[in-house]
Amino acid sequence: MKIAVLPGDGIGPEIVAQAVKVLHALNLDLTLEEAPIGGAGYEAAGDPLPEATLQLAKEADAVLLGAVGDWKYDSLPRDKRPERGLLRIRKELNLFANLRPALLYPELAAASTLKPEVVSGLDIMIVRELTGDIYFGQPRGISTLENGEREGINTMRYSESEIRRIGRVAFDIAMKRNKKVCSVDKANVLETTELWRQVMIELAKDYPEVELSHMYVDNAAMQLIRAPKQFDVMVTGNIFGDILSDEASMLTGSIGMLPSASLDANNKGMYEPSHGSAPDIAGKNIANPLATILSVAMMLRYTFNDEVSAVRVENAVKKALAQGYRTADIYTEGSQKVSCSDMGDAVVAALSL
Ligand code: IPM
Ligand code: MG
């Protein structure tokens, strides 16, 4: 089995190094090969997704990604910017199903900005569609109108089959969990999501055991803060999922804790932390590597079907937390503040506990 390792920009290289350390410590029969993406891709080959990187990612069984983006690339033309590399690799590999679990580790209840009783026991799976919606819809662009004024255009669109395949992923996951799916839309205003709702209702007939509910995205944003434990699986489109998954991450104490998996129809996947490249703290060895390490656990589970190793990694993270180790973002008084690489070492050590 081959893993393409794409560290990317900002804190990407440091957090990926910790995840790679954990992978090596598992002693599995895996080959790792590294390539640049994002700003690093632009520096190396003038392209945020260099052809060689894309080829490697296509050949590999799974992709481990750090993060992309740095303010210093903000003035580049849009197709050269780091984010475009990420969006393109998602699209090229057809990774339409983005799983973003928001799980609260009991040790971190105090690190959440919400009251412990609101978040303790929280376990939500956000299923975000990743290759459609306003992110990719045509027409798009900035043009100049006849009166000389500029106009920006993006297009929200979803075909029935795109909605159905992400819906299936959500229902299948719900069957292995608490059998509840909340579909998030804005069907009161947007036709695209009115269709979304209709397709979810049709699909639910194939899953009689699953309880399907619907929520408008504005209400969902509010309910996530008011009473997040009402949710089991949430399924939504690309842009709503982008926003709600950042919101959900804060319930768990820090976005630095949230892994993600982006899967195609055959469970080939790209695994990355849900957070960004945080250029402000890059190179300081203070970032939280746990989201990336937990992404490795998701890789073992979803692509390599190795539940035993996945649980081993997750348990090692829990043990490191139980031992009191905290990176700065999840630090609370009385715990032990550690660096990014120390946290990686702590997880590796906990693998053999
Ligand atoms: C994410 C990020 C990306 C997105 C950006 C970096 C393009 O915010 O993975 O959530 O919007 O999908
Ligand atoms: Mg985002």
TrEMBL record:
- Which residues are listed under the site Important for catalysis? 135, 186
Give the record's cofactor note, including how many are bound.
Binds 1 Mg(2+) or Mn(2+) ion per subunit.
Binding positions (Mg(2+)): 218, 242, 246
Q: Chief location of this protein? A: cytoplasm
Question: Reaction catalysed by this chain?
Answer: (2R,3S)-3-isopropylmalate + NAD(+) = 4-methyl-2-oxopentanoate + CO2 + NADH
> Which positions in this protein are listed as binding substrate?
90, 100, 128, 218
The cofactor required is: Mn(2+); Mg(2+)
**Residue numbers binding NAD(+):** 276-288
Q: In which pathway does it act?
A: Amino-acid biosynthesis; L-leucine biosynthesis; L-leucine from 3-methyl-2-oxobutanoate: step 3/4
Q: Which domain of life is it from?
A: Bacteria
Q: Name one GO molecular function term.
A: 3-isopropylmalate dehydrogenase activity
Matches recorded under HAMAP family: LeuB_type1
Which PANTHER family does the entry link to? 3-ISOPROPYLMALATE DEHYDROGENASE
Function, as annotated = Catalyzes the oxidation of 3-carboxy-2-hydroxy-4-methylpentanoate (3-isopropylmalate) to 3-carboxy-4-methyl-2-oxopentanoate. The product decarboxylates to 4-methyl-2 oxopentanoate.
Family the UniProt entry places it in: Belongs to the isocitrate and isopropylmalate dehydrogenases family. LeuB type 1 subfamily.
* Name this polypeptide is given: 3-isopropylmalate dehydrogenase
